[in-house]
Protein 1
Amino acid sequence: MFRVSGDAPDSVFSGNASASQPTRRLRVVRPSSARSAPPVDMAEAEEFLRLFHAENRESGSLQQRLDRMRYEVDTIGTYRHSQQELTFGAQVAWRNSARCIGRLYWRSLKVRDLRDVHTASGVAAHCVQHLRMATNNGKIRPVISVFPPETPQRPAPRIWNEQLVRYAGYQRPDGTVLGDPRYVRFTEAVLSFGWQPPLRRTAFDALPLVVETVDEGPHMFALPPEVIEEVPVTHPELPWFAELGLRWHAVPVISHMRLNIGGVPYPAAPFNGWYMGTEIGARNFGDSDRYNLVPLVAERLGLDTSREDTLWRDRALVELNRAVLHSYQQAGVTITDHHTESKRFLTHLAKEEAAGRKCPVDWSWIVPPMSGSQTPVFHRYYDEDHQRPNFYIDEDATHRALNGGPPRFA
């Protein structure tokens, strides 16, 4: 539902791993390729601080805050956000995310201030805590964990993975893939770095986290199995669906996007909402370059796949999506359907307009990937103006996530 990433358009734990020891460090994989940030654009910083004070009247003197910011930027090339500014900035970045249909809940985003965590093991530990907090016994909570910003003096920690939980893709000799084809190259890379997958490989083996810092370089960390809540996929009417052995993780924590607040970049700021069913059923399971399950489901349904005009793809896709929604509901894990969320998005749009704010929208992402014309978000035009603060696709992080190699600037 928190759809802003370059991933497929989409976004109860047990155990007692502590925040300091949640993962098993596997090994350093290669020298650091981190970089520092250029000086902060003072105009962008001023724009944000004026917005913050306009929407937070009790926050004190705007002029004093601007003077302090200008002094810091003149002195060290950047400035430090207060806790309140960080929280507001992260929430408004969600409010401004043109690709996300779930923005009605932007004020509910829990912001974790982790700007003093500089080690790879510390970042990985708090990513595990993020998963625990966000899952919340199945009642998914929107959470963002904000690690140190990039500054002119020091590169920031970076997370290579697109999401904290993603599944491996194993290339077979015959060219087919066991698992997620999107992550074949990343899987090959972490295997070469020393990652050991389960002895019995499956289509749903969680990949390790790769966290990079300027002092340590990239390190791999195995996520504790108890923090990866997964939902087995069954169907309300078709018993054979369970035989497919499908499952998916409960929380989509996007981890390869760069949060920018008032000109200050935060490259490591994993965040989550909860899933909209089509993100899993229509895209992760349905796309031909992902798990490509539509032909298999159509075959099990006994549909005529010899001609496209039988609409076998549409019929199979609907049952696949019904299975996903049914399974999450049965497991007590928060999920939403595309019809309900489309109506809620228009509620959000009306609230923003009533508040005198523009609501930027990328139509191609807001309209669901199935039955689009049956949802109210399909039948209107939107404001496309970019708003700040915001989240930005980090092309270097995406390159690492999909290729398992150093960023292109290295």
Note: The chain has eleven helices and 17 strands.
Protein 2
Amino acid sequence: MVATETAPAAAAASLSVKLMAPHDRARWDAFVRACPDATFFHLSGWQSVIEQSFKLKTWFYYAEQDGQIVGVLPLCEIKSRLFGHALGAMQFCVYGGVAALSDEARTLLDGAADKLARELGVGHLEYRNLVAAHPGDPAWHTKELYVTFRKAISGDDEENMNAIPRKQRAMVRKGIKLGLVGEVDDNVDRMFEAYASSVHRLGTPVFPKKYFALLKETFGDECEVRVITQNGALVAAVLSFYWRDEVVPYYGGGMPIARDVAGNDFMYWNLMQAAAARGARLFDFGRSKLGTGAYDFKKNWGFTAQHLPYEYKLYAASELPDNNPLNPKYQLFIKMWKKLPLPLANLLGPHIVRNLG
């Protein structure tokens, strides 16, 4: 992309906002890794992953002062008849928004997002924050929809096991007794098989296999594929991200047998063990929608739900988006999707899921 510059009069003369070019990626990532507000989902690799996997348009803005990056804001455009026209944090990334070292940089990046949103004529702009960025600002709205589950873990397996509530701990021990084992794959083949089987049973379109392969290729050792087997047979699998001292299990799924052998329960315990041994001290179970089975499952592990203050700024839209599987208008689609043969669902899913971020 060609770099552009704008600088509001109120900003310091040396503070400007630009679009990331290929030669900026190394210093972009160096900033993200050092910035306390940044997350794994601010890394530059997401641009190529999202653009190549889903053919979506992205803008990676950064604020620069005296030749140094002082703030970043990755944005992605969604344009769909079913889900509307929006600009916001990277599609399929649970965290995102401005990560900056100063209020001035944050304001400048907000201004770039506002300008782009108006030029594109979107319905709304969305930031996916861990902490509210505009509290009390009437121009920004929040809604009670998503929570995240984050919990400290130690380097001691016994301590981590004992921190799991009794009923859930019994499920983990069931998987252990039934001979489940975990191993790391260098490709996404088995993980995709387990994931595709799982989401089909939930009535959700599947991501393209290419997407998972690009995640593994782009993020290398920071993206791990862990597979659970029983006597060599595939039971479950999870793709996780490692970030600073955190592990983030992000895409997981199980074969039909997983329910009978506590496959998913064992899988997350096996990941927790491996992550703790690798030095991770925070287990991020990721976001879930209120009132869903995933929400209940994570609570059963003793994790406390933390509200995610996603923020929305309305433009052409008159109300906040409601792209939620609990929304009654999507229930018929979910029921129909569950009835599709799995090979057909895997063929059609990637053409639909690009708008489901």
Note: The two ends are 24 Å apart (CA to CA).
